[in-house]
């Protein structure tokens, strides 16, 4: 584009120079043509014929000049159009340069962001790997704990069954002792009633010291023995 503009400019300058040189000749040629119209060619000398030939050549040059002038105008117009296009192209290039600068800035920003994203991804991958290792260890530990809990559960179930059996035995013993105690208490109550009735019939002169072998006192001894047994049962329980 720039080379074509320079070429057109050079061509325009050449045409302008040729146009300036031929302007003076044009006026002379016009006068000579008027003279030729009034002159008989047979009366002209050789010098005049040569001059006439020269003038004919100048006429051709004039036509050529007019043609060149037209071309010059066309080239000038083309030059203006090319210049406008060049100016538009320069403006467009300026805009494109600005856009390229902006895009470069965006690319730099994206590259930096991409670098930070890569670092973040690496950190997350490392963290994920650590979490997977921790999860694996926890899974193994959980399996061990399950096995230990299973063994412990079996042992506890066995102990609970033993304790339940022992508790059931103790409950039966306690129930038997309670039944025995209740029976003895009823028997004691009857004996006490009987003893009280005998004391009422014996009279007020009798004292407890005169009757060392009181039946009620004698029967209280098994109760004490039964209480000791009940105490032993409670201790065992």
List keywords for this structure.
237 residues; mainly alpha; 91% helix; coiled coil; CCDC13; Coiled-coil domain-containing protein 13
Describe the structure.
Keywords: Coiled coil. Residues 58-92 form a coiled coil. One of its GO terms (biological process) is cytoplasmic microtubule organization. The chain has helices spanning 2-38, 46-202, 215-236. Mean pLDDT is 76; it is low at 34-39 and 209-237. Among the domains are: 2-101; 172-236. It is mainly alpha-helical. Helix content is 91%, strand content 0%. The protein contains three helices and no strands.
- The end-to-end span amounts to 117 Å
What fraction, in percent, of the residue positions are helical?
A: over 70%
Number of helices: 3
Biggest sheet architecture: none
Beta-strand share of residues: under 5%
Radius of gyration: 72 Å
What class do helices, strands and sheet pairing give?
A: mainly alpha
Apparent shape: rod-shaped
Order of helices and strands: HHH
In the predicted model, the low-confidence regions spanning at least 5 consecutive residues are: 34-39, 209-237
The overall strand count is 0
- Indicate the mean pLDDT: 76
Organism: Patagioenas fasciata monilis
Protein name: Coiled-coil domain-containing protein 13
InterPro entries: CCDC13
Coiled coil: 58-92
């Amino acid at each position: 584009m720039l080379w074509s503009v320079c070429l057109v400019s050079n061509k325009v300058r050449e045409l302008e120079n040729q146009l300036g040189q031929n302007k003076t000749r044009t006026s002379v040629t016009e006068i000579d043509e008027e003279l030729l119209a009034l002159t008989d060619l047979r009366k002209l000398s050789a010098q005049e014929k040569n001059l006439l030939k020269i003038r004919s050549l100048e006429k051709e040059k004039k036509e050529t000049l007019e043609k060149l002038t037209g071309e010059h105008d066309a080239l000038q117009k083309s030059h203006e159009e090319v210049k406008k296009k060049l100016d538009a192209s320069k403006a467009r290039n300026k805009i494109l340069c600005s856009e390229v600068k902006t895009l470069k800035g965006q690319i730099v920003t994206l590259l930096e962001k991409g670098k930070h994203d890569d670092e973040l991804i690496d950190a997350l991958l490392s963290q994920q790997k650590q979490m997977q290792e921790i999860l694996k260890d926890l899974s193994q530990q959980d399996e061990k704990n399950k096995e230990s809990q299973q063994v412990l559960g079996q042992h506890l179930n066995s102990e609970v069954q033993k304790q339940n059996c022992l508790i059931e035995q103790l409950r039966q013993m306690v129930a038997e002792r309670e039944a025995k105690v209740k029976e003895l208490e009823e028997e004691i109550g009857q004996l006490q009633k009987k003893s009280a009735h005998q004391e009422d019939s014996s009279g007020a002169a009798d004292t407890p010291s005169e009757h060392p072998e009181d039946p009620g006192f004698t029967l209280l001894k098994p109760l004490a023995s039964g209480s000791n047994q009940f105490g032993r049962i409670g201790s065992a329980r």
